[in-house]
Amino acid sequence: xxxxxxxxNAETLTAxxxxxxxxxxxxxxxxxCPWDLAQTPETLTPYVIEEAYEVVDAIKSGDxxxxxxxxxxxxxQVVLQAQIASEYQQxxxxxxxxxISQKLIRRHPHVFSDDVETRHVASIDEVRQNWEQIKAExxxxxxxxxxxxxxxxxxxxxxxxxxxxxxxxxxAAATGFEWENIDGVWAKFHEELGEFEQALEEETPAEQQAxxxxxxxxxxxxxxxxxxxxSEALQGxxxxxxxxxxxxxxxxxRPLSNYTLDELETLWQQAKAKLAQER
Length: 279
Hints:
The longest helix is centred in the N-terminal third of the chain and has 25 residues, at 2-26. The protein starts with a helix and ends with a helix. The chain has helices at 2-26, 34-38, 41-61, 64-87, 93-107, 109-112, 124-138, 143-146, 148-158, 161-174, 182-202, 205-225, 230-251, 261-278. 79% of the residues lie in helices and 0% in strands. Among the domains are: 2-107, Helix Hairpins (Orthogonal Bundle), CATH 1.10.287.1080; 232-278.
């Protein structure tokens, strides 16, 4: 069994080295790919985000081949970033791998510690608490690092806006910055809706944008209070819209752009009814 595992590990390392060599060749000024050579860490950022979302979508599909392919695309982004950094003598894939390995060892003393007492944990919640405590210690004991605002600022900088808003509100609520009941949340929603409507009529685009953000944040609070995931909800709406559009196109005898608004509404209702029957 151990021999087979060692063989698989060796094959994995060989495959990873092949990917590293391929990326290095693509980035070679002599005979490399012009597109790859033109990339910077900043220009590749959208692809990192896109590939991560495609991995999530593949996992939801349950298609093992799609999952493997999308994970490969995401791994490519890691190797590309490491290759570019190594060209500027900043860091390499070795430092990336070593860094995450050391972090995992530090944050899992219940697995890697030689202390029998330390290795005992009572629950997953205790594991999570230990993780957060060790993470806080790594960031230092300065007053600024201990502030709630510092933690929330990291969410705002590193997460997609809707996910960040949910995390920010959850952490704030955990400290007591919370409504007494859901009536207060609904009141806040209606207040923000009114302010957004007024801004659209009277204010500048910048102020309208700000009020729209406040309105969206209040909707996320309603989702949190009702144990709903706003990102999942919006994703579901996006997919339903596309499905209905596909049905409309199937019913249509000419391009949708050649239909009147009333005719499009009729097709839309037909599509909704057909999808409801198919469920």
